[in-house]
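From the shared-data thread, chain only:
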Amino acid sequence: MNTSLPARANEALIDELYERWVTDHSSVEPEWAAFFEGFELGLVRSRKVEAREATQGSASPIQARVDLLVEAYRTMGHTAAHLNPLSKSAPSISRLEPSDFGLGEADLNEVVSSRNFQQGREMPLKEMIAGLRQTYCETLGVEFTHIQDPAMREWVADRVESRRSASRQLPEVHRDILRKLYQAETFESFIHTKFVGQKRFSLEGGESLMLSLDAILEGCGSAGVLEIVMGMAHRGRLNVLANFLNKPLDVIFNEFQDTFDPQLVGGSGDVKYHLGYQTTRDVPSGHKVEIRMAANPSHLEAVDAVVQGKARARQRILEDTVERTKVLPILVHGDAAFIGQGIVAETFNMSQLPGYRTGGTIHLVVNNQIGFTTLPADARSTRYCTDMAKMVDAPIFHVNGEDPLTVIEVAQIALEFRQKFRRDVVIDIYCYRRHGHNETDEPLFTQPDLYSIIKVHPLLSTTFAAQISALGTVNPDEAAGIKAKLLEKLEAAFSEVKKKSESKKKKSEFAGSTAIFQPPYSHEPVNTAITVATLDKVAAAITTVPKNFNVVPKIKRTVVDRRLQVWKDGGPYDWGFAEALAFGSLLIEGTPVRLSGQDSRRGTFSHRNSVLYDEVTRDRYFPLKNISPTQETFCVYNSPLSEYAVLVHLGSSVWRLRQWSTDHH
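Structure, as tokens:
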């Protein structure tokens, strides 16, 4: 289809085809259907003229203009949303004005409908516009029209447009939100006052992250999730450990004590912001969920691929390698690291590959709108820090972190999407960072204007408490009582740690840890030899090809036949043959083998050839999978050309090697 022809020269044809397509998608040629489906918004400018002419007596119907208006809101509504909690108002976007679509004051009371909004429900045009603004231009901005699968795209639209439930007004919901906000805030302020000058990479300004995590956890029962595997950066890590994984407060406080020996494992510098943890949480429905937070390296986003490997291993252990809905990976990112570190893109690229997929990850971006001291204008060339997620058709929800109810609704939608489509989804929580990069840093040196605003910006709990007090669901006295109880809990844990410190009682450096101890390393020699019978069994298997399997002649001659002759002659064995024999012996002894890398199957120098191809059908045969009916699993995958993520994806090796390997799913 030639799309370079001037639009105005083809107005009549485009109008006719478009009206036919609106009525019946199959009534136009596939090329035109694709054009209208994917690029409706591209017609807006050329149809402005047509729309204005329509108001002056042209025959163009209002329906076409209404449909274009709806698509414009779906596509561009996020650009007009009030996302920044530090801004008093949303940006003004003239491209969404009704007049831009040839719709005037006289049209506002017209009863209209659109198949693209609320399932075609009829309503006055002014009501439709108000509904579109409420859905796409308030404190939530949604990017989903880049998704190429129409079913996924429509699911997101329908779910977003029907998201406001009656539970938003329930006193118990308001009370629970306020308690969680106080819990996050009091934890940070308590550490700030008790451990003056110590780094903690606080969550202050981004407390709604906790609401998002809890909403996902509470949805795990109905979603069938048994385990969560988490990874995150330093910011907010202690808060998440304390209030999401329920790591004992006295253990956390002990790590801040001067008496905490810096020579001990986990006791030096800022290592407490790197440590992982494991727990089991009960959700209100009675469902139990295991949560595993991976230890985090200083190279922030390196944990992304580690979490994918761990999640994949857990899915294997739970025999969940087809649906992959029982184990949920969650990654919490900072905005600067998400856009700035290439491993994020590498990990996204691996998300749907056979040897690496985990059924989708929920990505939560704590968008502080700043890096260490670097503002977005100096940090990225894209509108959003999340734009790279579009490469895998992930829906992206940008949400104002100071609208707690919407944050919770978005988290629920994200979990539903992940479980239904088994693909990645991104929640971009717009918030701010109340202090510097760490608590010893002075942000006024580089952003005096920004931090003059933050200095007087009220706490989220304060504004939310005022809102629900005005609604009459939680009164000020009740709110004060909730906060007081949380402070009592913190004080009790701190007093306990203080007592133990003052009495000089020796506390195990691993107290409260969920670490699994490894046996001591030994330099004693180990017998690794195999028997001749084992060697013969492996060699016979890897030099045998099924009947009617047409091996490429050169491979048959230089690999299969040559190895068969070397085996009969008793050597000499080249590197590739020796490696195959070693792998085979491990498989027979009960140890699984997994290889992954850019050219792992053939081998970069054509030395491995672990997969044989039929020259007629390109069917594949894996000799090392066919040694014995009782052998362990052999997996070999060609990876993307990744030099980083593909390595750390082997986070799966943390668990028992026997359960670590993966199958073809």
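DSSP finds 22 helices and 14 strands in the chain.
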